[in-house]
Design the sequence.
């Protein structure tokens, strides 16, 4: 029984990887921009597709059938591309909406989601495509004692914990992070001190969306790459963000991993509840601590 | 600009400054000037436009017209984030603007350097010894006096030479007001140019070279330090609520 719990816990943690990385990006963006980025799931999906395109399609398109951009390059290249797309979205569309109610930016990003999904469905069909570019060195399994676990999934867990810790460190312990936190609290004053806040906002949005792209690349070898993979996830991610506390960095990371874990362990006891348990917890948290577990009560 | 001409021309010269928040027109043609090393105060009732004058200088209003010359350069069209650098200005807002999610040291180090010759952290802790004791504390866990000292200290670090200080004595205990008064005097002796928005005339009077009385977004009177006693009745009339 204990083995079963541990095993499901590991699988749950594996989902938690994506909950944590995506809600982290959302938290960073919401903190500074006060924008609920509904396009986050679609950007995650775009990240997975870009990894797939770089590996499977690009070579064919340019006439070099043996040309594949491997996983490790994709892990660097794709987040930069998705982050770049994010910055273009912020500069050309989002920045006009800051003066208005946040609902407008939510609707805009929802629209962007539909466009991105539509584009990928049009070119790749709605069904999933497997990503064949999983690196050789991460194929196979490791024996964890209580279960055998795919090497790649273990890598994804360790890698994303490292990314989350690095982001936390930068935001909570460095000067760049201090500027970001100050900008979140009082952008006008930070501007008056001589900081180019609009540029900071663009870079932050780019960074948050790059995290979504990174999660997409990481997900490509695990889940099949499909235009709706982001839409399935984004609802859970929003629940994670609400539980952790809107805009809280630590809250989104901890609750991301924790909820993945809880979801997995729930499967052991009553499998049909696994999909619901997160939302049940969200309701409880909202009743007890409306600002979320790590949110500041105002 | 050479030294001789900067001594003649005022460091800051504001003419016909108008400012808006959204649709509401708050400043209706402010004129004032401030020489290098001088200290002036903006007096007036709440809502007269004194805070907005400082915010308009810093570019923190929605729209502004007129002219703001600093060392002879026009600042009216400069973007907000360039003003502190180009004018070597330090701004201390009315609500103090201490960041709650930053500790004292982070708050102190936050504003970027705008020029050479800023105070070192050691000098700042010398001037405000209380801050040193609480330097790892979060911004919200400070007393009002500590917050005020921090808000002034952090702009002294940047090398700013023109200080815009908004209601720095508001809500503070007399002993702290006295400490602040000594600090401002010290800064004046060090050659800083200072514009004070002040409600507490007893605090401001011994420090200032000149007072501007502002009402309905306009300067309605200008009183030199030497004239204060003779014009005390008028001042009392302006400031009575």
Sequence:
């Amino acid at each position: 029984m204990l083995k079963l719990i541990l095993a499901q816990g590991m699988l749950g943690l594996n989902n938690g990887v994506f909950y944590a990385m995506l809600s982290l990006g959302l938290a960073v963006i919401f903190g500074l921009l006060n924008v609920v980025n509904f396009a986050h799931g679609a950007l995650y999906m775009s990240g997975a597709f870009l990894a797939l395109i770089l590996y499977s399609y690009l070579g064919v398109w340019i006439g070099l059938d043996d040309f594949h951009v491997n996983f490790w390059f994709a892990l660097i290249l794709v987040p930069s591309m998705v982050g770049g797309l994010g910055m273009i979205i912020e500069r050309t569309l989002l920045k006009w909406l800051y003066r208005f109610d946040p609902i407008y930016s939510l609707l805009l990003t929802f629209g962007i989601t539909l466009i991105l999904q539509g584009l990928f469905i049009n070119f790749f069909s709605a069904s999933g495509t497997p990503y064949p570019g999983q690196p050789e060195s991460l194929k196979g399994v490791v024996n964890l004692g209580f279960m055998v676990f795919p090497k790649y999934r273990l890598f994804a867990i360790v890698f994303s914990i490292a990314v989350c810790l690095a982001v936390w460190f930068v935001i909570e312990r460095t000067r760049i992070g201090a500027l970001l936190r100050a900008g979140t609290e009082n952008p006008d004053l930070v501007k008056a001190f001589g900081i180019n806040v609009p540029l900071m906002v663009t870079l932050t949005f780019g960074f948050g969306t790059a995290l979504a792209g990174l999660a997409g690349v990481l997900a490509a070898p695990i889940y099949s790459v499909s235009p709706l993979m982001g839409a399935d996830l984004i609802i859970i991610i929003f629940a994670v963000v609400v539980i952790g506390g809107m805009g809280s960095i630590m809250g989104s990371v901890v609750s991301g991993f924790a909820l993945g874990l809880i979801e997995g362990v729930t499967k052991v006891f009553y499998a049909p509840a696994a999909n619901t348990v997160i939302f049940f917890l969200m309701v409880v948290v909202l009743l007890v601590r409306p600002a979320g577990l790590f949110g500041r009560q105002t | 600009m050479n030294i001789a001409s900067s001594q003649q021309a005022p460091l800051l010269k504001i003419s016909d400054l108008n400012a808006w928040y959204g649709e509401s027109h708050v400043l209706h043609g402010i004129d004032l000037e401030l020489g290098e090393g001088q200290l002036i105060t903006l007096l007036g009732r709440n809502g007269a436009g004194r805070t907005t004058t400082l915010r308009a200088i810093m570019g923190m209003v929605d729209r502004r017209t007129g002219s703001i010359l600093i060392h002879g350069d026009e600042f009216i069209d400069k973007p907000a984030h360039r003003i502190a650098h180009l004018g070597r200005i330090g701004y201390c807002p009315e609500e103090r603007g201490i960041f709650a999610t930053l500790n004292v040291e982070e708050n102190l180090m936050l504003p970027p350097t705008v020029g050479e010759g800023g105070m070192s952290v050691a000098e700042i802790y010398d001037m405000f010894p209380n801050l040193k004791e609480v330097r790892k504390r979060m911004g919200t866990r400070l007393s009002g006096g500590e917050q005020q000292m921090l808000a002034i200290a952090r702009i002294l670090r940047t090398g700013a030479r023109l200080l815009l200080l908004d209601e720095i004595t508001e809500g503070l205990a007399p002993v702290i007001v006295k400490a602040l008064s000594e600090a401002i005097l010290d800064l004046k002796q060090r050659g800083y140019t200072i514009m004070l928005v002040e409600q507490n005339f007893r605090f401001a009077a011994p420090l200032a070279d000149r007072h501007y009385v502002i009402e309905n977004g306009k300067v309605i009177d200008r009183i030199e330090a030497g004239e204060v006693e003779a014009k005390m009745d008028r001042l009392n009339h302006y400031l009575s609520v």
